[in-house]
Amino acid sequence: MSPIDYVGLNPRLDTLEGKKIGVANMGGGNAEAMEPIGPAIMAAYPGTEAEYKFKFDTKDATFWEWVDSCDAIIVGINY
User: pTM of the predicted model, to two decimals?
Assistant: First the structure.
């Protein structure tokens, strides 16, 4: 068996200005905690876009297109 190359994490963003932050809520009882994250990010970092997604299908290609369009993702999981 050949070894698997280590990929690691993406490097940190140097700034949030002009960046798109995805807030992905996989469902459960965490909507009250997740919904305000996007507006809070945009208020704290002017010039930043934040978009909230709720209960998405990870098998759907459009979800992964959205992920690819973001510079960073915040994921909430609470079942």
Answer: 0.77
